[in-house]
Write a structure and sequence with these properties.
elongated, 7 strands, 7-stranded antiparallel beta sheet
């Protein structure tokens, strides 16, 4: 199987200059380059550029997909609008970050030891791009999901069994569409996420309302508001916006739905894994019980029509329609299961032997009986 690698970079706060596009073209003659994006895929060979450096210099978002199981998302944010201690709290597992000049670059990564399924990378950027705005609005769930991606292990992003989870943000039980996409992208186990969400507060409306912002802005000095307005109208507008929102969140942290609840006991990686496995086994047991109940209901219905079922099998065989032999064999298996359940195997075996004796020349039918394990 050939290799497949997909690279997509995107800007959100600005457009690339002609000089920057020319610089990027030097990295690939076949890449699709626009004023806001750089896209390339490889079946053989590798990209000559360094994604980390490109994020530091040009782009706000990066998605990488390889068919051997590596998935990588990077998000660049204005450092003025980021609470650095918060990033430090969530570092580990599948999440890491660093600062370059006026930007913080956040990295979310997962790699499977056994490789991944072949899939096209184009779908991921539209699904994951909203994560950037959610982070700028103070939503901490993507950071926790990034850490959680390393709990199950993998390449270069697993966490030690005794490592304690970072603060559990609110809203893990009702993720946004983009965050659900991140769960899929990082291949986070559903049972692991369910267990993690058990200690998460419900409320997760992290974006401030216009009314909340208006009241808060009135509490700031006129000089401060004028400085913000001046910056918002200039080249640093996106960074200023994120800085203002950060100050707003910090001023309301005690009441903010994005706040982390430090009183919630933290669990170790091993505890999360054990709880997820227990949840998985409970779900399997419940599924098996439901399947058994459904099977009993089906057999109860068959028990009310045993003679009719035998007649239908007989008529099918007498009609000499091999296309219906599968249906006849299935009915016989159901009759066998009913006989086992109700302790009536001897009468069943007598009727089956008589049926086989009558139709022993129908080799196609006899062959299907043998394949199903029915004995006579």
């Amino acid at each position: 199987m050939s290799e497949y690698q997909y690279y997509e970079f995107r800007t959100t706060d600005r457009t690339l200059t002609a000089a920057e596009i020319s610089e990027l073209r030097q990295l690939s003659s076949r890449a699709e380059i626009t004023s806001t994006s750089f896209i390339n895929s490889y079946s053989y060979g590798d990209f000559r550029g360094n994604p980390d450096r490109l994020m530091e210099r040009y782009f706000d978002l990066f998605v990488y997909v390889a068919n051997w199981g590596t998935q990588h998302l990077m998000v660049r944010l204005p450092v003025r609008g980021i609470d650095i201690p918060t990033l430090e709290a969530y570092a580990g597992g599948g999440f890491s970050w660093w600062v370059k000049d006026e930007f913080a670059i956040l990295s979310f990564q997962h790699s499977d030891d056994g490789g991944g399924e072949w899939e096209q990378g184009e779908r991921w950027m539209p699904d994951l791009a909203p994560i950037r705005d959610e982070l700028l609005n103070g939503d901490l769930r993507p950071l926790y999901l990034g850490w959680l991606a390393g709990v199950e292990g993998g390449i270069d992003c697993d966490v030690a069994p005794d490592e304690v989870e970072p603060p559990v943000p609110s809203g893990l039980s009702r993720l946004t569409v983009a965050q659900s996409g991140l769960v899929e992208f990082l291949r986070i186990d559903a049972d692991l996420l369910k267990v993690a969400a058990e200690r998460s507060e419900e409320n997760a409306d992290t974006a401030p309302t216009q009314e909340q912002l208006a009241l808060w802005l009135k509490s700031r000095s006129a000089v401060e508001r004028d400085l913000w307005l001046f910056d918002l109208l200039g080249d640093s507008g996106p960074a200023t916006r994120s800085e203002v929102l950060l100050q707003f969140r910090q001023s309301l942290r005690k009441n903010s739905s994005a706040a982390v609840h430090e009183s919630t006991p933290r669990r170790t990686c091993e505890e999360l894994q054990s709880a997820a496995e227990e949840s998985r086994q409970c779900a399997l047991q419940q599924s098996a019980e439901n399947a058994a109940k459904l099977r009993n209901t089906q057999l109860d219905e068959l028990a009310r029509n045993i003679d009719s079922a035998w007649r239908e099998v007989q008529q099918t065989l007498e009609a000499k329609k091999p296309a219906l032999y599968d249906l006849a064999t299935k009915t016989l298996k159901d009759l066998r299961d009913l006989a086992e359940r109700d302790g009536q195997m001897e009468p069943f075996q007598d009727r089956l032997r008589e049926l086989v004796r009558r139709h022993k020349t129908k080799t196609a039918f006899i062959g299907k009986l043998q394949q199903t394990g029915l004995k006579w």
